[in-house]
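Feature request disguised as a bug report, sorry. It would help if multi-protein outputs had a clear separator. Right now it looks like this:
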Amino acid sequence: MLFHLSIDAENPRLVAQVLARLMGGKATPFPAVTEGSWVAHGADARNTLIEVYPRGTLLVEGPGGAVGLPGPSMRRSATHFALATALTEDEVHAIARWEEWPVETHSRGNGAFDVIELWLEGTRLAEILTPEMQQAYLQNVTLGRWEAMLAETGLCEAA
């Protein structure tokens, strides 16, 4: 179960504000790790958070816990996440168009479920799932179905 995650951005405040809007929550400054960081608070039972650090921030071990240090600014990353929203597909697309960020809806798992690929600042992938998409995801992305798919492809035996 995920409670929070962190990403970096050129404009942490703007990215946190957009993520908070998608989660029905609020964005606030987040000076706990490094200056210029923001956090998107979700309006859900788990108090989901997405921490947004300045681009290139590296988390390292410190005497009192993790600290953020400047690092290389990488415009692309393998890091991405799927995020539930109460908004409609059209509303999500409108937010992305307003920010001039790439957005497109795609099917996953041979039509098992759809996601809205929203590219934050054009560089970080957030897969946004509307309520309907969440239902299909929850029905189709299960360990049992995953193992069956792997068994069909010969990559592993089903449990």
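(second protein starts here, but nothing in the output says so)
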Amino acid sequence: MATIFNAESVSYKLRQSPIPEFSWHTSENLAEQVNAKHMQFQIRSLDPGKYSYPYHFHRNAEEMFVILEGSSLLRTPEGVKEIAKGDVVFFEMGQTGAHQLFNHTDQPCVYLDLASLPELDVAEYPDSGKIKILPSQDDVFQGGDRVDYYDGEASVAEKWEALKLSRGHDGEKKNEQQ
């Protein structure tokens, strides 16, 4: 049976972290509504001036964003690039699939977040040296110790400012001889 979801008709919950820069609105896991076996997906809305999850990658899951409305800056190991309505972005497993969004505009960025659903995944956070064992919400470790999910993430704005100084908004390195 086909099930149709519409970004305008799903209900959203605000997800606010202890660090104000990390905040977004998300639907429930829509895959649960259709009893999906191998994937999960939510529709998310990232408000202006906010960051998505901390910069991370997955060891055992693939992820894809479909931008439905607005635009955002996407941080990857290659740099920072603007993505906009109609873009489909695939993140492979491992370090090369690291990603984070920042909404640099004055309008919400609405996107579909699809991911494969392994029984066990490990997410790694290069900025803070943490790992998270998924699907648990509480198994976050740093240097062998269990830590809070947002430990080491408070300076997100400064990290992005440093990226802006060393790169243009399109992700290209600035010529240092200018």
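Even a blank line would do. Unrelated, but nice: The longest helix spans residues 156-166.
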